[in-house]
Amino acid sequence: MTKTQTADLSLMQHSDLRRRFLFMLPAVFVTYSLAYLDRANFGLGAAAGLSETLHITGAQTSLISASFFLGYFLFQIPGAAFARKHGAAKLVFTALLTWGVLASLTGVIRNFWLLVVDRFFIGVAESIIFPVILLLLTRWFTKGERSRANTFLILGNPVTVLWMSALTGKLIDSLGWQKTFIVEGLPSIIWAFVWIIFIKDFPSQTGWLKRESVATLDAVLLAEQAEVAEVKAVREALFRPDVLLLAVQYFCWSLGIYGFVLWLPTIVRQGSGADMGTTGLLTAIPYAVAAVFMLVASSISDKTMKRAPVVWPFLMMAGFAMLGSYFASGKSFPVAFVCLVLAGAGMYAPYGPYFAIIPERVPKNITGEVMAMINSAGALGGFVGSYFVGWLQAATGGPKAGFLLMSIAVIVSSLLILLLPRQRTLSA
């Protein structure tokens, strides 16, 4: 990028291009928040007695929650390819409608296998959201903005769990877990129509940016892409050593974080002996701290233009904090809970910098598919984490074994980042 382009963009950011932050980021934040709402409230439903109501075992409950990740895993790359060729905004609209209906049905269905199928197709509907919106953000934000833009999207995860943990706990106490699921599926259906009205695939398609601003933004984005080594075929990109390493690393990271998200309410309730309302409030604390850590990490990353060096220390901290929770579990709930807070913060903090790595290493013609592949590996890790953490919880009668598994996986994920090959550029 030339100094002139940098200066032009800096000037525009203070005027017309600032609108990108006001229009795009709140929209993607709400969309991902709604996607994460159903994903996380299942954990509270399980803690509230879902298995007792439906007369199913703990292992069956784990299979219901894990089936989501199978659907989420299988349709990532096809969804990203479809979005790149046929339009991302309309695909997100369809997904919002679909999972809103299916999420509400989670509170209606009484048959075990129908619930497994329902959760599977919720995973299918949600599978396109994360990689497709990440792809959208690469079209709207520059390299120096991307970590913060990604973080604003992913903040929908901990912030949703934050308010949802408090609100859903109260709703379950008042309405029961089934009616709560029905109520919490409706906002996605409503938001779908708001999304399709305001969000477009490219800045040039909007009516709220001046042509001069769009031209400046496009010039900077084009200059950034000129620094990335060309990759003509999707298959070639997917089997690159750096992409494969990131996929394995994200698998381990997701194994830890999804097991954490889905089973934290149950673990907190068992450790504290509190009612569901108090459990919801306690469960919200790690996510409040995580949101702060995410903003700090993304700001550091964009200012220094460092990605991997920001990611691995947070994951290492999270892994050892979770290990601390393992040793403190059953001895001191306050100590174990403080460790859980640090673990959650460390696992969430580096998301923005992490997903800024990919568009800086691969060209835009295959960015969506590469992001989808890595996120698919994360979904597979989520399946393994949610199922085996739940299985270990049921088999051992406590959270310790599950947290040992998650801590090891997160520590391994931090070490794998250190093995990331040197970035390939045209000048390299």
Largest sheet: none
Helicity, in percent? over 70%
Whole-number average pLDDT?
Answer: 80
Strand content: under 5%
Structural class computed from helices and strand pairing: mainly alpha
Distance between the termini: 16 Å
The radius of gyration over CA amounts to 21 Å
Give the SSE order as H and E letters.
HHHHHHHHHHHHHHHHHHHH
**How many strand elements?**
0
Please state the overall shape, judged from the principal axes of the Cα atoms. Answer: globular
Please describe what this structure looks like.
Mean pLDDT is 80; it is low at 1-5. By secondary structure, the chain is mainly α. 82% of the residues lie in helices and 0% in strands.
Which tags fit this structure?
disordered N terminus, single chain, mainly alpha, globular, 428 residues
List strands and helices in order, with pairings.
Layout: H1 3-13, H2 19-47, H3 50-54, H4 58-74, H5 76-86, H6 88-105, H7 112-127, H8 129-140, H9 143-154, H10 156-175, H11 177-198, H12 211-225, H13 234-238, H14 241-272, H15 276-304, H16 308-328, H17 333-348, H18 351-357, H19 364-396, H20 400-417
Helix pairs in contact: 1-12, 2-8, 2-9, 2-10, 2-11, 2-14, 4-7, 4-19, 5-6, 5-19, 6-7, 6-11, 8-9, 8-19, 9-15, 9-18, 10-11, 10-15, 14-15, 14-17, 14-19, 14-20, 15-17, 16-17, 16-20, 19-20
Could you provide a short overview of the structure?
The protein has 428 residues and is mainly alpha-helical. The chain is built from 20 helices and no strands.
